[in-house]
Structure formats: C-alpha cells, structure tokens
User: Fold these one by one.
Assistant:
Number 1:
Amino acid sequence: MEMAYVPLRHASLLVATICIPVITAVESSDAPNLAALKSMAMTSRPSFVYRNLLLVLLAAAAPFAASAAGMPEYSLTIQNRRFEPATLMVPANTKFKVLVTNKDSTPSEFESNEFNREKIVPPNSTVTVFIGPLDKGQYKFFDDFHLDTAQGVLIVE
Amino acid sequence: MPGVALLVFREVLEAALIVTVVAAATRGVGRRGTFIGGGIALGVIGAIVVAIFAGAIEEAVGGAGQELFNASVLLAAVVMIGWHVTWMSSHGKKMVRHMQQVTNSVKAGSSSVAMLLAVVALAVLREGSEVVLFLYGMAAGGAGRVDLLAGVPLGLAGGVAVGFALYFGLLRIPIRYFFTATNWMLVLLAAGLSSTAAGFLIQANWLPAWGNQLWNTTWLLSNGSVIGQTLHVLVGYEARPAGMQLVFWLVTALVLFTGMRWMAARMVSASARSKSRQATASVRTRAVDTT
C-alpha cells in the first residue's frame, strides 16, 4: 500500500501545478464567466482536502496575479507593410500594453525575439500584447510576414 | 522568393522536428506511416480552418483568444505526450526484448499511439496555420506567382529534409537504448512545449512572468537562428526565458519523469508475476515490419 501512497502525492503535486496557473488566471481577468469556472473547478473536486488545497493556493497566488488596470498603453500601426511609429519609447521595469492595429488588407504577425512576443494581427483589426517589465535598452520587433519592410525598435528607458 | 522560402522553411521545420520525434518513438508500430500521414493530413485541414477563423479566435476571450488557443493546443500536446511516455515505460522494455511483440503491445496501448498522432496533428495545425495566413497575405498582397511557386516547395522541402536527417540520425542509436532515447526526447519536447505555452499565457497577461528575463544567452545562441529555433522545439531552449516558463519546464519534466519511473517500477513487479504468460505470448506473435 506504500506504493499507492507515493503516486497519490505526485498526483496532488500535478493538481497543484495545474491549479496555480488556473487560479492566477482567474484572479487576473475581469471576465464574469470565469467566476463560474472557478466555482466549477472547486465543486468538481469531490475531496474536501482538494477543495482546501485550492483555497490555500488561491490565497497564495493572489499577490502574484497581474492586473491590467492602470497599465501604460501604447499604440502601433501597421500600414503599407511598415510600423508607424517604427520607434516606441516605453518606461523601464514596468509592464505595459501595446495595441497593434493592422490597417492593411493582409494578415501580419507582430513578433520579437528580444522581448519574446508573437501574435498574429488579422487584417483591419487591433490586437493587444502585454509586454515587460523590461530592463533599459533597445529591443527589436518585426512583422514576421513582412520582414523586408516592417521593422521596429522598442526603446526602454 | 527568399522571404517566402525562409518563412515556410521555419514553420515547416518546427512541425517536422516534432513529427520526427514522434515517428522515431513509434518505430516498429504497425501501419505507423498511415497514422502519421493521417495526423499530418488532419493538421493541414485544421491549419486552414484555424487560418480562416484567425480573426474570430483573436476576438474571443476578451482579446486573449489567440494566446489561449495556442496555449491550449500546446498543453493538450503535453498531456498526450505524457500519457504516451508513461505507457511506454511499462511496455518499452518488453518491446526491446521482443521486437516481435510490438504488434500485441501496441494493440493493448493503441490509445497511446493515437495520442501521439494527435500530437502530430496539433503540431502541423499550429505551424501550418501561420504558413496559410502568410501565403494568403502574400497572394492577396500581389506577390509574384513565381515567388510563391518556387518559394513554397523550396521551404517545404528544406524543412522536411531536416526532419528526415534527424530521423535517420536517431535510427543509428542501438536498439537497446532506442526507446529510452526517444522517451527522453519526448519528455524534453513536452517540457519545451509547456514552457512555450507559459510564454503565451504571460503574453495574454493571464500569468505573471516571475521575472521577465531570467538570463540572456542571445550572444551564444539566438532564438532567431535556425539552430536556436531547432533547440527551442526539441528541448524548449529560450535565450531569454521568463521565470514562469522555467517553472512550467521543470514541473512538466519532473511530472513526466516521475510518471515514467513509477510505471516502470510497477511493470517490473508485474512482469515478475507474469513471466511465464509472456513466454507463451511471444511464441504466438508474428514478425512485424521494424522499419
């Protein structure tokens, strides 16, 4: 029976690691349907122990939850396969939001290897990308679908 | 044309590396070619569907639809790989000892092989949808027909060639260590996919980064280079990883490793009991194609 106990402990570790991101995500989002998801996640675990584990993790994860409220916001436009502006000034050590608008009739992909982001921007639409906090410096970004023309730099200071 | 060929090559390379590891891990399985081919075909169809609905996916879940979709696809692949490697640890040793038993073992664990085929489909779907969007954009944007007609086959052939090169390299591993090696490759692959999923969740602001850049090894190997990209797929290499990505990588590797060890330990005690039954079973089995 000792054998059965060990995997159970590993299973609870797995549950914990799955729950942390889920709970953090739930905490950091404003969408109302997530409250339902949260209660569902709690009731679907029949065990009292698991329910308490979730509550403990919820409390532990709450301080780490990211909030989008009051975050600095910047805009970038892709037009004629170029970024406008091609240089964006942002503050150091702060998380910020960039709204990327594609005014072309073809899809683009906003991407950077230097601040590790990658997001498709459908034609005539705007997407939101959360970036940072970043250290001071210059970070290149590009449109992966129009590499030859659409290049830009993020200046963090 | 170089632009078209290069982008197609990069996306095909990522999918091809995953398909290659899966192909190696299912070596000796009957009708494997059909299964993998089916997985690729499903992935291509899925890629086109995803590309068509790219706008709708993006607008879902408060503008985080794209990241959540990618993270879900990646984590689904991680779970499926996890299922397969734990199953393999209980049957892999037997497969090596009696290669002719493979057919029987696989019948018993066909759900596990189906999982790996789904991994193939998901990999092709994810990378393929980017190719479809890119090519649609190029065609709609008035790129020359020659560019597309020459660039697409060139990029495709290049990516597939790297996959085959890796496959034939892996075949040189002695059969005794072969499935141990492919299992480890699957564990590293899954850990990397998990870390990439974490990256998407950070980008969507659904997860904290826990340190946006733990270290920076761009000077050594950039994620923009082909080798950096290859290692990114195979082992989850990041030149500038976020803390949360490392956590996902470590937890996935640890959970799969523990699962493998646990199943292998259970197998040892089970096989001791049923040794005589196995002996009779191996007499009954037919020889199978081991290519």
Number 2:
Amino acid sequence: MWNSLKARLFQGYRTGKFPHRPPVLPERFAGRPQITADNCDQCGKCTEICPSDAIDFNNGNLRLDTGKCIFCSKCAEICPNKAIQMSKEYRLAAMSREKLIVTGSIWEPERPTDREFLKFCGKSLKIRQVSAGGCAACELDFNVLNTLAWDMGRFGIQVVASPRHADCILVTGPVSDNMLLALKKTYDAAPRPVWVIACGSCAVSGGIYQNSSVCSSGVEKILKPDLYVPGCPPHPATLLEGILRLMNKKF
Amino acid sequence: MDKNYLLLANGQSAGIKNIPVLTEIDFDRECLHAIREEKCHVSAFFAVDSGEKTLLTAILADPGVRKFRVLQTPVSGKFLSLTPHHAGFNRFERDVFESGGLIPEGHPDLKPLRFTGGHAGEMEFFAMQGKAVHEVAVGPVHAGVIEPGHFRFECMGEKVYNLEISLGYQHRGVEKMLLNGPDKRTMHLIETAAGDSSVAAAWNICRIIESLGSLEVSENINLLRQCALELERCANHIGDLGALAGDVAFLPTAGFCGRIRGEYLNMSAVLAGNRFGRNFLVPGGIRYGSDAAVIREITAKLRIVMPELWNALELMFNSPTVLDRFENTGTVSRETALDLGLVGVAARACGLDMNTARDLPGGGFAIPSVIDTGKFNGDVLSRAVVRYEELKKSHEYLLATLDTLSCKISPSAVKIPALQSNAICISATEAWRGELCHTVITGDDGKFKLVKITDPSMHNWEGLAMALRDEEISHFPICNKSFNLSYCGHDL
C-alpha cells in the first residue's frame, strides 16, 4: 500500500490536456490532406501510387476520399505541383460518408444533427467494440483512450462487456466474411436505439482490403455508420474528438 | 550435393531448382531428425505448385549453423502426416489441407484452419463425456477490446481439462492478395497482416525484396530499423505487462503502463509519423531520414520515461498479491514447449534458449543481447519476467545504438527493381512475440508466386491451450494475456 502510494506520487498526474488544449502531434504526423485544385495538372501520378485507390478525378477535378486513405502521404510526396499536401489537421471524423471526400483545403468539422442520439447519449455513451478483421492497431489505439493518458471515462464514454449494455457499436476492420454473422448478432443484441461508429479506413471503406475476396469492404454495406473515423489507425485524438463531437460536447 | 537440404541464411535468395527434392520417406525422416536431434524448429511448411507436380516444402530453422534448411518432396492428393510425430506441424498441415486440398493422412485432428467463406467456428470440437462435465464457450466477440476468436473449455467444476481454440474469424486473404507483387499495396498489406508487428513484418519483406532485387542496405539503416523494431517490442511488452497487472486487479501498474506504452508509440511516431511505425521501412532503405534532432528527441524521451517504467514494473514484481497469482499459474513444461515448437517469449519462458535475432542473423549489424533463460519454468510469472528482462536489454541497446546513430541518415526512395525469377527467399525477425517468418517464391516473371507468412502466434496458440490444462478456468485471462497472441497474424 505504502509502495503503491509512493509510486503514484513519483508517477504524477498524467492525464492529457485534450480536449481543452490541442493534442501534441509528431512532426511527421499526416493529417487531413488538402487539395489545391489550381495546382493540379492531372498528371495522374497520385492515382497511380495510391495503395488504397483513394484518389480519382471527378469530371477532371481531383478528389481524395479520406475514408479509403491510409495516410501514407505518398501522393503528397510524388505530386510535382503540391496539389495534394498533408496537413496537421487531426479532426477527421465525419457524420456522413460524403463529408470524407476532400476536394479543397477548407474544412470545418460538422456539428451533430441527430437529436435522438443527443437525447439518449449526449451525456454518456456506452460502447461495445467489435473487431471484424481489424489488424489490432485500431483496437489498440481505441484501448489507449481508456488509459489514464486520455481517460475517456471523464466524458461519460465507457466500453461495456455486453452488447446488451451498449448504446453504440464501434466496428474496426473491413468486416471479414467470418465475422459477418457475429457482427450482425452483436448489433441485433444491442437494445434500440443503437448507433454505429466505423473506426479506421478498413471499417469505413475496406481500406487496403477493399478488394479482398473474403471481406465486405467495410461496415457500410451491413450497418449504416453514424460516425466515420478515417485513419490507419486513427490517432487517439482523432477518434476521441469524433466521438465527443457526435455527443455535442463543447469545450 | 550430398546434403538432403538447401542451406539459406536469413534473407539469402537462391534459385528454386537448388532445393533438393526428396522422396516422401526421406523428407519425413530428415524433418523429424532435424527437429529431434539437431535442435531445429519448423519455420514454415507449405505446398507449392511446380508445373505438373505439387511440392511439399519444409523450412526448418537450424540454430547450429544459423541458417534455414529448405527441403521438398513431391506429393499428389495426400501425404503422410507428421503431426503425430511432432505437434509443431499441426497448424501447418491444417493450412496445407485447407488451402491446397492435400490430405495429411493420419493427422489426429484434421480440420480447416481458417474456415474461408464465413464458416469460422463450424467444426467438431473435442468434447468430454460425462454427467459432471460442462462446456464453456467464449467468443468470437469478447468482453474487452480485442480481436475475435473462439475458445471452448471442457471443465469439471472449476478445472479445465481441455481448451480448444478455434480461429479464422480475422481471415482477410492477405497471402492471396500479396500474389503477383511486389506492387503498391505490398508493404501496406504486410504491415497490417498483424498490425502490432508492423515494423518486424515490413523488415522481413524489405529484406526479401532487397535480396531478390540485389539492393544494398547500409549498416546504419539496418541499425535504425533495429531501433524502430525495439521501440515496437518495448511498446508491446509494456502494454502486456500493464494488462497482466490489470487482469489481477493490480491497478497502479496497469494504469502507469497504459500511459507509458503510449510514450513508446509516440517515439515510433517521431521516427515514422505513425504510432505503429508504419510507412517507415521501404525496400532499399527507410522512408524518412533521421538526423541529430530526431535521435535527440527520442533519446531524451527514453531517459525521462525509463525510470517511470522501472518504477511501475518493480512495484508490480515486488507485490506479493501479484506474485501469488502469477507464480505456478499456466505452466507449460520445457518438454511440451519443445514438442509444440513454441517460439519467442513463450519458448524462452519455458527455459528454451532461442532468439531469432541471434540464431538467424539478418546481417552483420549489432543486435540486442539475449537474456539468460535457464531460470524460467514456463508459468505466467516467467512470461512476465522474460518481457521485463527483454525490456532492459532493449533499452540498453536503444541508448547505445541511438548515440552512435546521431549522424544524418538520408531517406532512400528506391524504385523496386525486377526481382530474380524462380527464386526462393526466406526472412525471419525476432518480433515482440517471437520468430516472424516470411517466405517468398517468385515465378518466371519475377513476381511473387507464393507468399507465406508465419506469425509467431501460429506456433504458440497451442501453447496457450496447454497452459490451461488442469488449470482453473478463472486463470484464463492472465494465461491468455501472458501469451497475448495475434488473431489476425494467425488468420491472415
């Protein structure tokens, strides 16, 4: 007991200042890509190099789908005209799939409009996580939010052991065929109303596994997500900011 | 050639025609002799199509000469199972059966491994009979935030008589998607095959592409890669030790380690931009260079965090309530470990002196020193202490190596050249769980004709099952966490 107290004093209070202060991000952090359409001469080098086919031309206009993007920033490196650049913007989560598509450089994260969600979950949110082909990175970085460094419990967000206790199912992974049934059963076991968070590029769109013959290219074809969190894996700040915004928590 | 096998160093390539093709009887004899008498273990075992015939291929790690032994035998339709003679072949033969349709005759428990096509869990479980017997089924969706897998316990009262582990839920078809590479997806698929071992996996495939494409890599780059790997190993070991503390409700260390693990992920992010070290290793070198400023940032952080880490861990290892739960729980004997072919942390905790970094050197650069394994008896405590001692060695290595690396290392973006055609190359790395082995065979066009990933979990899942035998079912969480195996690395 005495030793534990001494250790506690030595270790100190370590919960981060987020969300009252922006998160500390590494110098090489790749956040939301920005597109400067005027710089693009449509050489197509970016579409060629993109490992997850996140970039295409829509009527000649360059667009990048952050739902597919794995943030390797190879497109920004190869672009001779700096038409694509990776910003430090960590707020990537969106409440509709279309909002994930980047065509310019201006981005204002949207506010929640789901009144029912705010009524049920505005103050506390119980999450049941389902890994459906996730590679463990999304799962590990979601777990990080439970550590004292991020302590999501202080916002009323909690992981629950049973779907019976859940307000929300957080899905990671491209939904492997072998997890399809278990995912559906978990969703069905949760009391209504229930919401869905797609965490990570795999869950949003299949990501790097979108062409796998034994996966579903993300959760969208099975359940309609209420929050899409891009990233491979999403930075803990990205995920937490997204959930807090969904809950309309203001700081 | 008088030898019955081809010797290949870690990351050395050779034409596939150099691999001796033995008769099945000689092949079996050679494999079993190497494992029983010459301290070899199975690194990979698979079937590969070669024109009109299918060749069963064994890759055995030989610590004596510090090389892989590669040998083949032609089979059609069926072959004699080696599992009854060495249990380490079990999962490999099930994989051969599932992916190629070859039947290992005499296999004691033949069933698919990954149940492709939405059939995970649809199998006959080993079942005990009797009025007092009860079954406990857990998963695939677990109570915590972890990957899916199914565990079936056969119990009488609290005591577990058998645990059968049924996996496949994470199957994403990684090996199939890697075929005809290398292409723009290759590195990312490799890095996400088991997302907590991204650096180790990336290094393996880089070494293979560098070998088959005759790319040179400087010693400094190898040292920096090893540092990235050590950061990955540290983060995972710390996370595991914290989680073990959490599982026995020793919350101080659980809390401290959860936070400290994040510091190591952040150090990886300083190097790579990604907390899991992704996109850092590229064939031919590294994606981002390092200079004195980057190295200084990491060493400064290490020096701050180290005392906090040792404080958190010593608190746990000096706590009688923790030791009482860890000691003599989930014991796997040395003999069982040898028979199952365990690798890595789990094997060392059983007293086996094996370490891929030392036994299969991937180059002439310095590696962390290995721990003395003589004192371990295979219980949860051993697996925890192995991690603790390895953390010490990793830190010694990191501080010593980073100091010598404070010069500027430039990023190297190399165009991947055409690879040697009809060649085989094997690369293994001591990832945080143990030996992670990648095997690539190229076709006539120099493209990947076969990619086999052997995650350490492939060897070690059976170890967890044995750890639970005759153990109380309430000890499952700490036994499971003390192994902390990968589901996706196994299911691919």
